[in-house]
Structures are given as structure tokens and as C-alpha cells.
Amino acid sequence: MSERFERFSLAISEISRHWHKLTSNEMEKYGLKGPHSVYLSTLARYPEGLTGPMICELCGKDKADVSRMMGIMEKKGLVIKESTNRNLYRAVFKLTPEGCEAAEFVVRRATLAVHIAGRDMDDETREMFYSCLELISANLRELCRDGIPDDVE
User: Quick check: is 8 in a domain?
Assistant: First the structure.
């Protein structure tokens, strides 16, 4: 069992470390950090814009992170904030034309990186891998919410 834990931990850690390094390198072009890539690609999927709470949910980030990241991207001219009321957190964030260009770049580079990373997998294996990752993610999210039980049923 400890070998499974070590293999799992190492694989997840290594994937995360290398992915963060790649996204950081790619985002340097825009004077941004790697985590901005998730926000750009998410906003690109919603040209009508998203509110802060929607971005939190879609990106799996908290309110403070979303606020900080949107502020940075707004200062860089990649995002605009449209407010229809006094509550700025309910403002709608949209990509500017420059933001759309950056998002297109991010999506294109990420797609290439994912393609290269999985190039030795056939379609069936790749689909099973993504299904497994989604299941593991959901189970870990549940464990974080509820805690690790004393025993497995």
C-alpha cells in the first residue's frame, strides 16, 4: 500500500510541478504568472463575461485569488470590469481584444503541451486516464471537505 501512495504522490507532484513550470514560462510573454493561464482560458470560453463568483466556481479558486488575479490582468489591459451595480464583486469581467489574443495563445500552447504529454497514449487509454483523474479529484475534494475516515468501508 505504501508503494501505491509513493507512486501516486510522486506522479501528481511531478505533473503539477512540470505543468506549473510550463505555464509560468509561457505567461512570461505577458508579464503574468502561470496561474493566470487558467483565468484567461476560462474567460475565453465565456465571451459574454463572468462574475467573480462564477470565476471562483469555474477555476476552483477563492474570492481573494480571483480578485487579485483579475486586478493584475485589468492593469495589464487584458480584462475589463463592467459593473452594473454598486457591488463590484458582482461586476462582469470580460477579455479585452489584447486579452483575447493572450487567451488564444494560452489555449494554443496548452493544447500543444497536453498533446505532446499524452502522445504515447491511444484514445481509449487517454479517455480512461482523464476519467480516472476526474474521479480522483472528486474523491480528494470530498476527503478535504469531510476529512479522512478512520477506516474504509
Answer: no
pTM: 0.79
pLDDT tens, 104-128? 999 999 999 999 999 999 999 999 9
Task: Write the burial class of residue 126 (CB in 10 Å: 0-12 exposed, 13-18 middle, 19+ buried).
Answer: middle
Q: Comparing C-alpha atoms, which of 88, 79, 84 is closest to residue 53? A: 88
Domain count, the chain: 2
- Is residue 125 in some structural domain? yes
C-alpha cell at 51: 462574475
Range of the domain at 126: 121-153
Q: 118: buried, middle or exposed (CB in 10 Å: 19+, 13-18, 0-12)?
A: middle
Chain position carrying cell 511531478: 14
Which residue carries 500543444 as its cell? 112
Q: Integer distance in angstroms from the first to the last C-alpha of the chain? A: 17
In the chain, the largest separation of any two C-alpha atoms, in whole Å, equals 55
Phi, psi (5° rounding) for residue 82?
-110, 120
Q: Are residues 112 and 131 in the same domain?
A: no
